[in-house]
Specification:
heterodimer, A: 348 residues, alpha+beta, 42% helix, B: 653 residues, mainly alpha, four-stranded antiparallel sheet, two-stranded antiparallel sheet, 62% helix, globular
């Protein structure tokens, strides 16, 4: 009883402080279709304002005509009795002309719309730039597995819920799903594309400004559909290469005895059943790869900023933070937890 | 009786026997009342086959489901009003939004539209009942069964939680173990049977039982809307019959239609579901257009301008409605050219909608509008539905849709379409026809409150959702972090929901008060043109003392001496109607409507039991099929009753 109450208290306190780190990236619209940061989103934002303008004009005109009709009919002196129930023949011609003009105008506007839409469609379909960066994304309930392919196998990089890309270079993403249908959507960069088991899908985007852009699953995928976010980190080519280098290869060896103890906890406990840490015996592939965990911004697919406190809360009781998540609660004594946190914190 | 003439009959009618005692009107009334009197008491309620009793039940049941669906919506709005709200967790939230969607689509919108049709169509075309009265009763019981199944399961924490669209593999056996999705699939089975029955009733009744003289070009637009909708149901429902059955067998007996690991395909479900699901929108929307026509005609006292254009628009909407389903799937891997075709079709469907709107505006322009609550709801329909239509065109664009698909923009769009385009006309219809159903007029003062609260609440609730969607808020999320910046608009939206709930309360109060104390309606309080206003309010069991004869498109306005010619000579000792030809409604022969019986209820119990027990064991199908067969044998047991005694005569007033 006491244990569980204190845990709840712990979770509440953590939630109160969790805003601070994320506020740094929470500039206006870091997940917004109206704040485009790449050519695809930009074309659609332009389309949005064009269509909204046309729609507003159409609405104002049609409603204006309706209000005029109501006002005219209301204020007019009653028509002669013989025309009761049926339109006056003089009026009928006017009405017919009105309806025909309306129908023709509708058709012309829609034809224009079709041209604008299809041309925008083919603009965004063409990959903007040659030699795109190739990334594989696999959707899982409820996190994103990200793989940077490389011709040399040991140069391949695996990470989760965070996609680093160089600014100005097109990124081609090959997607699939390990379980149910998900949808990949980072609105500042591009529209969405589904990840469908049994089908391979492809999308692309290019970030033209450095920044951290949030995305999240857009196709209902079960319990934690709401907390299946990811971040696209667009950085300079140099920073990106540096990051990629750092992500390559095996995990850092424990530097002190506390971290060594932590590694033992990880390898002997349940953690290793589901998670991989390259260079150790841990090779589970149910949860995210943790080889470079400490270099990420968040845990649990964008649910919490990565801090030692959040990580502790997550390890102890993931079901309170993200109910239904596949990760079970871990029974662990405080010393082992300290060691484990120290070890995981060292995995830059 | 000024003048009588024998009607041309297709059958060879024997010469009338020379000496028939002629009944007076009062004799006829007494005899009809006696033969159409329903069994009394609870048993009578269970056995009723009169279209009006059944349709009223349908409407009341649908409104109860509307209220339940509304409560679910309110709970979602409460949960989303603040970021990281802990009012309901993901498990319940997912059940609630699935229940909300399923309830509103399958248990409210489609049934209520059919129900209004089942009440009004026989009255509007001048006959005594629907073509197959017992089948009609079965339809209601099946519908009720589906609704009860869904809510019983929900209250036992077995409510479906994979969305009203039940996308596989999420809804498949692997990712939705337990019975939740089975309940959903079988609820669909119940309601699709009910919907198909309603459609068959309306098509047959309209094509074969119209009053003499009501040729195809004189059928009221509301009735046409019902017929066209019924055809859409007949063509669209098989897709969901097939797909929900495949889902059920995937889950219950390990078929692998949708399992990619065994050669099945997850996208197959989406194609089948939306091949039904998109026409479904028009199945809800077209009857509402019919209601708008009735209301505009009545409250402008002008015949609807452009009857052929209106009719052809509805028909083309129905056809185009079947060519749009892929616009729900733009984010799936489909070729770009193919998607463009669906963009074109999706935007083209707004042409017929536009034509209808222009015709109504023309009618209003030439008419003398009376700003009753009913008419206000139609003005609300214009103001709201056009917004939904315009955003509908925007999202028909593939690149645009890829940004807003599955976001709150879509939620805003389709609530403008469905509330603006279907619920507002429905409420206009309630205020128009309530006097006919009950004999009392709804209070106009409360009606105005009802309208304004609903209209303002609707906009406050749903307009901000357009912005939320563009700000990146996906649908079907139970929580969101505060730093997303969605909090204030969500709070505003939730406040709007309070206004809508208040409006609903005002409506319920209005109905309850007016039922007892509303001013008496008389036969035709609004001076409306269609035949349902030619009989008393509420109509007697047999609808019309004599079957009316129609001499124009607006029978009550076109009758030469303000009184209708009628048909006499139908038998009064049994439930008899007149079958007429499809094109010109020329009388063909007499027709006996089946009387009330308990069989539909029994079939619903055994057939419904089969559907429910099949969730738990395949043996349910075997046993249930045998029991249902026994009932069907009794149902179809031939009875012979003598025909033709008096000739059918057309009598002018």
């Amino acid at each position: 009883m006491t244990a569980s109450r204190s845990r709840v208290h712990h979770v509440t306190r953590r939630c109160a402080v969790r805003l601070a780190p994320l506020a740094l990236v929470a500039c206006t619209g870091f997940q917004s279709a109206l704040d485009p940061k790449g050519p695809r989103a930009e074309a659609v934002a332009r389309l949005h304002w064009t269509l909204t303008a046309i729609a507003t004009v159409v609405y104002v005109v049609v409603i204006g005509v309706l209000l005029f009709a109501l006002w005219r009919a209301h204020t007019r002196t009653p028509v002669a009795e013989e025309h009761a129930y049926h339109e006056n023949p003089d009026h009928a011609a006017v009405m017919k002309r009105g309806v025909i003009i309306g129908a023709v105008a509708t058709t012309v506007i829609l034809a224009t719309f079709l041209v604008v839409s299809v041309s925008t469609g083919s603009t965004v379909a063409k990959v903007g730039g040659d030699k795109p960066l190739r990334i594989d994304v696999v959707g899982h309930q409820w996190w994103w597995e990200v793989t940077y392919r490389d011709p040399i196998p040991q140069n391949e990089v695996k990470t989760a819920n965070e996609i680093h890309v160089p600014v100005g270079r097109a990124v081609l993403i090959k997607m699939s799903s390990s379980d149910v249908i998900h949808s990949f959507w980072a609105p500042n960069l591009s529209g969405k594309k589904d990840l469908i088991p049994g089908h391979e899908t492809i999308t692309w985007f290019r970030a033209d400004a450095a920044g951290v852009y949030r995305g999240q699953c857009a196709e209902f995928c079960g319990h934690q559909h709401a907390q299946m976010a990811f971040f696209v980190v667009a950085e300079s080519r140099l920073d990106f290469e540096h990051w990629l280098d750092q992500q390559r290869g095996e995990a850092k060896r424990p530097a002190d005895s506390l971290q060594q103890a932590g590694e033992r906890v990880f390898l002997s406990g349940p953690c290793a059943m589901c998670h991989t840490i390259a260079g150790t015996g841990a090779g589970g592939n149910i949860g995210p790869d943790l080889t470079h965990l400490a270099s990420r911004r968040t845990i649990a697919a964008g649910t919490l900023p990565l801090t030692t406190g959040n990580l502790a809360g997550w390890i102890l009781d993931p079901q309170t933070i993200k109910p239904g998540v596949k990760m079970p609660p871990t029974q662990i004594d405080p010393q082992s937890l300290q060691a484990l946190l120290a070890y995981l914190g060292s995995l830059k | 009786m000024a003048h009588s003439q024998a009607l041309p009959m297709r059958d060879d009618v024997p010469e009338p026997p020379p000496l028939i005692p002629v009944d007076t009107e009062n004799d006829v009334r007494a005899k009809l009342s006696a033969s159409w009197k329903e069994n009394s008491g609870f048993y009578g309620w269970l056995t009723s086959t009169n279209h009006k009793s059944i349709a009223k039940r349908y409407v009341v049941t649908a409104i109860i489901f509307l209220i339940l669906g509304g409560i679910e919506a309110a709970m979602m709005r409460a949960q989303l009003s603040r970021p990281e709200n802990r009012f309901i967790g993901p498990d319940l939230y997912n059940q609630i939004f699935t229940m909300h969607g399923s309830t509103m689509m399958f248990l409210f919108a489609v049934p209520v539209m059919e129900a209004v049709g089942l009440y009004l169509v026989p009255l509007m075309i001048g006959t005594r009942n629907v073509a197959f009265p017992r089948l009609n009763a079965l339809g209601y019981w099946m519908y009720l069964g589906g609704g009860v199944l869904l809510y019983a399961a929900f209250f036992m924490n077995t409510g479906p939680d994979a969305g009203w669209f039940s996308y596989v593999p999420l809804a498949g056996p692997q990712y939705s173990p337990g019975k939740r999705v089975d309940i959903w699939a079988q609820m669909i089975t119940f309601t699709e049977i009910a919907a198909l029955i309603g459609a068959v009733e309306i098509v047959t009744t309209v094509f074969k039982l119209r009053a003499p003289g009501m040729s195809l070009n004189r059928i009221p637009l509301f009735v046409w809307a019902q017929v066209i909708t019924s055809f859409m149901i007949i063509f669209a429902l098989p897709a969901i019959v097939v797909s929900s059955t495949m889902l059920a067998t995937d889950r219950l007996i390990d078929t692998h239609f949708f399992n990619p690991a065994e050669g099945g395909d997850a996208l197959l479900w989406q194609h089948l579901f939306w091949f039904f699901g998109h026409p479904e929108v028009y199945i809800i929307f077209l009857p509402a257009l019919g209601m708008v026509s009735s209301v505009v005609e009545t409250f402008t006292q002008r015949r609807i301008f452009g009857y052929p254009a209106m009719l052809l628009s509805m028909v083309s909407t129905a056809f185009l409605g079947f060519g749009l389903w892929v616009h729900h799937m733009f984010a799936t891997p489909l070729p770009q050219l193919g998607q463009s075709f669906f963009t074109a079709a999706s935007s083209a469907i707004s042409i017929p909608s536009g034509v209808q709107i222009f015709c109504w505006i023309a009618t209003i322009w030439s008419g003398r509008p009376r700003f009753t609550t009913s008419f206000m709801f139609v003005i609300g329909f214009f103001l709201l539905f056009i917004i939904g239509g315009l955003t509908g065109v925007m999202i028909a664009s593939v690149p645009y849709d890829l940004q807003v698909h599955d976001t709150f923009f879509i939620v805003a769009h389709f609530h403008y379409v469905l509330i603006g385009g279907a619920v507002f006309p429905l409420w206009a219809g309630f205020y128009l026809w309530f006097p006919k159903l009950t004999g009392r007029i709804l209070s106009e003062r409360l009606g105005k409150w009802n309208f304004w609260l609903f209209f303002i609440g609707m906009n406050v609730t749903f307009f901000p959702m357009h912005v939320l969607g563009l700000m990146g808020m996906p649908r079907r999320i139970y929580t969101y972090p505060p730093e997303m910046g969605w909090g204030s608009l969500n709070m505003l939206s939730s406040i709007g929901a309070v206004l809508i709930a208040t409006s609903a309360l005002v409506f319920v109060i209005n109905v309850l008060r007016s039922l007892r104390g509303g001013s008496p309606a008389g036969d035709n309080p609004w001076n409306a043109p269609t035949l349902e206003w030619a009989t008393s309010s509420p109509p007697p069991g047999y609808n019309f003392l004599f079957i009316p004869v129609v001499e124009g498109r607006d029978p009550l306005w076109d009758a030469p001496h303000d009184e209708l010619s009628v048909v006499t000579g139908l038998r009064t000792d049994r439930h008899e109607g007149l079958v007429t030809s499809i094109m010109d409604a020329i009388p063909e022969h007499r027709y006996e409507f089946k009387k009330e019986t308990i069989l539909p209820l029994l079939l619903a119990v055994f057939g419904g039991g089969t559907i429910v027990i099949a969730i738990f064991t395949p043996w349910g199908v075997t046993i249930g099929a045998i029991l249902s067969f026994v009932i069907l044998a009794a149902w179809f047991w031939p009875t012979i009753s003598p025909d033709h005694d008096t000739p059918v005569v057309w009598r002018e007033p």
